[in-house]
Design goal:
The complex is a heterodimer of chains A (385) and B (582). Chain A is an alpha+beta fold and 385 residues long. Helix content of chain A is 40%, strand content 16%. An eight-stranded mixed β-sheet of chain A has the order 8-7-6-9-13-12-11-10, sandwiched between helices. Chain A has a five-stranded antiparallel β-sheet with strand order 2-1-3-5-4, sandwiched between helices. In chain B, helix 17 crosses helix 19 and helix 20 crosses helix 21. The chains are: A alpha+beta (385), B alpha+beta (582).
Chain lengths: 385, 582
């Protein structure tokens, strides 16, 4: 357990979600362990007594997340309900409390995976692993980032941006890490063996994370070799894909894709429709923010943007489509493949970006980076009014 | 009350009479329904032998059944298990639970013993008990064909009449309450069948909230590769797990002597799809529809059956798997115990069982002929009688399902601690050890597993009380279902409150087993798993297993022998008296 606590403490820092030394993680099997000692442990221990959990994280988010989350939480009348895909699907809503008191935390956490305490941090729990708490913590940071930047454009268009909101925006933008100027050089394809494919997928996944093109470590990636689609497993971290790639025959002879990414069908249709081999799906933040910025205030489908937007929307020449996670009736597997032809990539509303490569991941990663750069620049242009 | 009808039907077959009971609302809130509420009624009788007429056979639906709640077509059947002597319960699908609710009932308790073979027919709250002498020896298929117009059907086949200790109860012809030999309770009561038809509606407190909560569940299910994914169980049935077990090399083969089956490719879910062109079907109130029926009407076996009638018996003939499944269902026998008992027989006798021999032996068991009376006692008693008790791959006398415990250590612990004997569903750790949900855990480590298994047992006790389907919890959680429950019943609750109820339900099962003499000696695995390596992994460490089990006991609030304590019982609102029960 201690190894897991230390691992996720390091990952919070590596992902830029918390500052060095900030994450406090507890894990309980028979005995309760902490990754470090802290005055907060005594209060947090009560959470292990009051909740059937086996792990938790408490940490103040790093900037710019801290300012954005505090701003949103302090202005929320109740729980926060971001409308990005991750929150809508997995988190539903994020409760907010205003005191670091076990009783209040327990009440909030009895029905939700995490809670925000403005000025103090985020508490998140898991029942099988600290990884669950890590995912929740990360999702809150991502969701609040997207919500703040998307809301800002909405408020700007309505002429009701406050000075405080402007100040928080400037503060956050000043703390954004610059995007790399050039894409990295990845293994050149086409790949000729199972081992080469796994190596190339693992490398591209790791660099996608290093280039900040996913929310924390999440996204998915695949490569078609012969008639097999090698795809990252569901819930895998793109920077740790060794042992987490499923070879899925495309001839229907096996069900091994049952543990593959929930976007397996979208990946399969993309390679079959385009003849290209490599697919990369990340969650670059400004692409997600811009996908949610729409000036059609009185659109009849306003509350259904994520499932059935009637408009043909673009950022530059990159289409924005609706679609939910997976294979349901509004699944993105029905919208992304059709929109990809002749495009640099496709943005899914409130969710992320798909890009492709003909023989390897060089083109896919370069396009993902280019789409995000374009979206960030476009966002800043719009934010200037 | 909303969600519940407030009525429990008691039928006494000794006198062919019945009455209604109306438990207090607090009883419903404390035990929810399904196996939680069934356990409430079973507890006072748990020390009775399985063939004691006063021992109730309990059919109990949950508050979500019959409503628009996702996957709410299930129910629990519970009594004391003839096979293990422990608590015996099964969650079963089909339409029976829904019909019980529509009939204005939450559950049915059957006691007594009819002086002639009989059937029970319920229409709304009207009860008719009919002589059924002419149905003696009839298979469940023919019975289903004859009675399917009567609504939901639970019945037994010849195996129960032959005294098979793993006799099942078949619901609607193809849904099995398979484990633990509950079918034998029908025989003990001289009961052949039960049908229920209801015409009412189940009241829901807040339909709008239910719709919203339901949409949250649907969204999660749609995002789940295991459920609605291209290769998930909606498309391939539970057999979709077969290739995973093969690739992880944890498929029990040749009575668990190996964990890799060379013929797996010929009998996987894709092979069944090519061979039988199945269509989707499933329980009432479910949109996943994991059950598969071939174009010609052939039922496609569930994963456990598929694996045990192929790898465990080293059979790579797809027709034999299908025929064995159909035969077990028609005779009314648990497929897992039947296949595992044959595997035990094969190892002891040294006989390699070819397809026709497998089918012939099943027929002998189900009809009580030839080797049947001996094998029909299950592998534990059979192996013991043959002087080879170590070759029964069972826990508490119940045979292991199709996940080798050397390939998933949480499963190893879960098999051992399960209150109904070897069972993959009590803690269902394949969720995180194999399917990566909610996140992946290290399947080859005991680290953290004691608490994980305890929490999961509590969770699944809630699921079986609501009564919902465990599969949907590969994607969603009590976070969503607490809202579903509140919307249906009006009882404001949280996920954690429900987990506490689950803990109370599970602890009471430990108490019931303790009253019948179960302790740590029975919370154990066959010696083979500690002594022999699997095909790709080593043997389990006995020392690590015992340390983890001791940790589980502490976390569960049991003493070092696995026995309940007064303090923990009181904390959960229970009373523990070692001499309790009838």
């Amino acid at each position: 357990m201690k190894q897991l606590l230390d691992k996720y403490a390091r990952k919070l820092v590596a992902a830029g979600l918390a500052d060095e030394g900030a994450p406090l993680l507890g894990g309980l099997d028979v005995e309760l362990l902490w990754n470090r000692s802290d005055r907060a442990c005594a209060e947090l221990e009560k959470l292990f007594q009051g909740l059937a959990i086996n792990s938790l994280i408490f940490a103040q988010p790093a900037e710019p997340y801290r300012s954005l989350i505090d701003y949103i939480a302090l202005h929320a009348a109740g729980p926060i309900r971001p409308s990005d895909s991750e929150t809508r699907t997995f988190m539903h809503e994020i409760p907010v409390i205003h005191a670091f008191e076990a009783e209040k935390m327990i009440t909030a956490l009895k029905n939700r995976k995490s809670v925000i305490i403005p000025g103090q941090g985020i508490v998140a729990w898991g029942t099988v692993s600290p990884e669950q708490a890590f995912v929740s913590f990360s999702s809150i940071c991502f969701a609040c980032f997207v919500k703040f930047f998307a809301d800002y454009l909405t408020h700007l268009r309505a002429g009701r941006v406050s000075e405080e909101e402007q100040r928080v925006l400037r503060h956050a933008v000043a703390r954004l890490a610059p995007l790399p100027q050039e894409p990295p050089s990845l293994m050149a394809g086409p790949f000729a063996s199972d081992a080469q494919v796994r190596q190339a997928v693992t490398e591209a996944g790791r660099l996608t994370v290093e280039y900040g093109l996913v929310d924390s470590f999440f996204g998915n990636i695949s490569y078609r070799f012969e008639n097999i689609l090698y795809i990252s497993q569901t819930g895998s971290s793109l920077d740790e894909l060794e042992g987490c790639i499923d070879p899925c025959p495309l001839d229907g002879s096996s069900c091994t894709a049952i543990t593959a990414s929930s976007e397996f069908v979208a990946h399969r249709e993309l390679v079959l429709c385009t003849g290209m081999k490599a697919v990369l799906h990340g969650h670059p933040r400004f692409a997600v923010v811009l996908s949610m910025d729409c000036d059609r205030r009185h659109c009849g489908a306003r509350k259904a943007c994520h499932t059935r937007c009637p408009e043909k929307r673009l950022v530059g020449d990159v289409p924005i489509v609706s679609g939910e996670v997976g294979t349901g009736p509004y699944g993105l597997c029905h919208t992304v493949p059709a929109a990809m032809a002749g495009r640099q990539g496709v943005i899914v509303y409130g969710h992320g970006v798909f890009t492709m490569g003909r023989q390897d991941f060089n083109e896919a990663l370069a396009n993902l980076l280019a789409v995000e750069r374009m979206c960030r620049e476009e966002y800043l242009r719009r934010a200037e009014g | 009350m909303d969600g519940w009808s407030g009525s429990i039907l008691h039928i006494d077959l000794s006198t062919w009479t019945y009455r209604l009971e109306h438990p207090a609302p607090a009883t419903y809130r404390a035990w929810i329904g399904g196996k939680g509420l069934a356990g409430f009624f079973l507890y006072p009788h748990i020390k009775r032998p399985w063939n004691d007429p006063a021992l109730p056979l309990i059919f109990m639906a949950g508050p979500l059944v019959g409503t628009a709640s996702p996957t709410s077509g299930r129910m629990s059947i519970m009594s004391r298990s003839p096979l293990t002597g422990a608590v015996g319960d099964a969650s079963v699908g089909g339409s029976l639970g829904t019909q019980i609710k529509r009939a204005g009932l939450d559950g049915i308790l059957v006691t007594g013993r009819s002086d002639r073979l009989c059937g029970i027919e319920i229409v709304d709250r009207r009860v008719m008990i009919r002589a059924a002498d002419s149905l003696r020896g009839m298979g469940t298929d023919a019975l289903h064909a004859r009675l399917k117009g009567n609504g939901g059907l639970a019945c037994v086949g010849p195996a129960a009449e032959a005294g098979v200790l793993f006799a099942s109860i078949m619901v609607d012809g193809s849904y099995a309450a398979g484990r633990g030999g509950l079918g034998l309770l029908f025989a003990a009561k001289n009961l052949k069948y039960l049908t229920v038809k209801g015409s009412g509606r189940v009241p829901v407190r807040d339909p709008r909230e239910l719709k919203k909560a339901r949409e949250d569940v649907f969204r999660l299910v749609a995002a789940s590769p295991v459920l609605l994914g291209e290769h998930g169980i909606a498309n391939y049935g539970t057999g979709a797990l077969y290739d995973l077990m093969d690739s992880r090399q944890m498929m029990p083969t040749a009575n668990f002597r190996r964990t890799r089956f060379n013929g797996a490719g010929a009998v996987n879910a894709a092979a069944f799809r090519r061979h039988y062109l199945p269509r989707r079907t499933g329980c009432k109130g479910c949109h996943i529809l994991c059950k598969k029926v071939g174009r010609d009407g052939t039922p496609i076996p569930e994963f456990e059956t598929m694996s045990h009638f192929s790898a465990l018996l080293e059979n790579d003939r797809i027709e034999t798997v299908t025929q064995a499944n159909a035969l077990c269902n028609d005779l009314g026998m648990d497929t897992i115990s039947a296949a595992a008992t044959l595997a035990c027989y094969a190892e002891i006798s040294g006989e390699r069982l070819a397809g026709p021999r497998i089918l012939a032996l099943l027929e002998e068991i189900g009809r009580g002929r030839g080797l049947g009376p001996e094998l029909g006692q299950g592998s534990f008693r059979y192996a013991k009688a043959r002087g080879r008790p170590e070759l029964s791959m069972s826990v508490k006398g119940q045979e292991l399902p199709a996940y080798d415990p050397r390939g998933a250590y949480g499963m190893a612990l879960g098999y051992a601690t399960s209150t109904r004997g070897a069972c993959h569903l009590r803690a269902y750790p394949i969720s995180h050890e194999i399917l990566r949900k909610p996140v992946a855990t290290d399947r080859l480590s005991f680290a953290g597993k004691a608490r994980i298994i305890k929490i999961a047992e509590d969770l699944n006790a809630v699921v079986d009380s609501l009564t919902s389907c465990k599969f949907v919890f590969f994607a969603s959680s009590l976070e969503e279902y607490a809202r579903v429950y509140a919307a249906v019943t009006g009882v404001e609750t949280t996920a954690q409150d429900l987990l506490l109820t689950g803990e109370r339900i599970y602890y009471r099962e430990r108490m019931m087993n303790a009253l019948n003499g179960f302790s740590s000696a029975e919370d154990d695995l066959p010696a083979r798993f500690f002594a022999e390596a699997a095909s790709s992994t080593g043997a389990l460490s006995r020392e690590e297993f015992l340390v983890t089990r001791a940790g589980y006991y502490r976390i569960r609030g049991l003493d070092p022998r696995g026995m309940p304590t007064r303090e923990k019982a009181a904390e959960l609102g229970l009373v523990w008296e070692e001499q309790g029960g009838s």
